[in-house]
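Standup notes
- DV: blocked on the single-chain target, sequence here:
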Amino acid sequence: MFTAVELNKYFDISVPASFGFSEDSGGICLLANNNSFNRVAVALDVTLDSIEFAASVGAGALITHHPCIFGKISDIRCDDAVGARLLKAANYGISLMAYHTRLDNLPGGVNDTLCKIIGIKDTFEFAPCARIGNTENPATPDDFGALVGKALESDRVKVFANNKSVSRVAVCSGSGGSVLRDAYLAGADTLVTGEVKYNNELDAAEYGVNLIVAGHKETERIVLPVIKDIILKGFPSAEVFVYYA
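- DV (later): unblocked, structure below
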């Protein structure tokens, strides 16, 4: 048995704040109780449905990749989406905590897991929350896009073919358009990410860098088993329930 505060202290050691961005929300978003519990729910996002799932399994805490609160809020209202989530979780006595960019940068975290799943080897960090490495064999953009879609079980993959071959691949889960120039300067012929803006599409064409855009959720939900493993490493007797929707 453990409390939400004890669980957060453990995450502060296992997933240190030094891995995250200083402006990022991290740790406890909502401390709903000081009681001990042994059941934890894990999800990508705090939503009304993921809170209901946590309540249905009797979890004392819901740990997510994305925090419920981004930045500061001035009030909590039931007619606001964030407020409604906080009030619902509080009503159930479920504490909320998240470790967003910490998990993106963590060795073995989101981006390392993404590289492993889509077959990128010999990787290293070339920018915050981003990795670069090599494919086992060169491929065409369309073939590599299909491989990524299959690996991530995503039917939302978009391929912007600006180079004939894929062999040197940069990876940045979620919204990775901001690392495009760094990827180009690091020698990438392809960037795999979750979503990009229109200006990123234009820049990629100028750089001659392929874009494989596979969906924000699809490139990050792969971290959920990692979060579960982190919990069980520190609390082997804990019961951890993963919400994948």
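- Follow-up: The mean pLDDT is 96.
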